């Protein structure tokens, strides 16, 4: 089974703190996510897709690559 790219950096074992630490844990997680998002490179204007045909082709290519990856892993 393929992992979603968005979850590849998450730890394999998730620790769920007890209810006493939930607020501080939530703030820690929020701060970590904020730092990750702030460190991402911005999307360049020339890399945006404005053409509907190119967008459809890109979506089709993405689906095809996912199918091939699932076939290879299976």
From TrEMBL:
Key words, A-Z: Exocytosis, Protein transport, Transport
Domain of life: Eukaryota
Any Gene Ontology biological process: protein transport
InterPro entries cross-referenced by the UniProt entry: Sec8/EXOC4
Cellular component annotations (GO), alphabetically ordered: exocyst
Membrane-crossing residue ranges in chain numbering: none
Family: Belongs to the SEC8 family.
Function field: Component of the exocyst complex involved in the docking of exocytic vesicles with fusion sites on the plasma membrane.
Protein name as annotated: Exocyst complex component Sec8
Native source organism of the sequence: Cuscuta campestris
């Amino acid at each position: 089974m393929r992992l979603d790219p968005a979850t590849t950096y998450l730890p394999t074992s998730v620790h769920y703190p007890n209810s006493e630490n939930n607020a501080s844990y939530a703030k820690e997680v929020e701060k970590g996510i904020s730092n990750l998002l702030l460190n991402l490179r911005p999307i360049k204007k020339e890399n945006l897709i404005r053409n509907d045909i190119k967008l459809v082709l890109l979506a089709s290519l993405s689906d095809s690559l996912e199918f091939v990856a699932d076939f290879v892993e299976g």
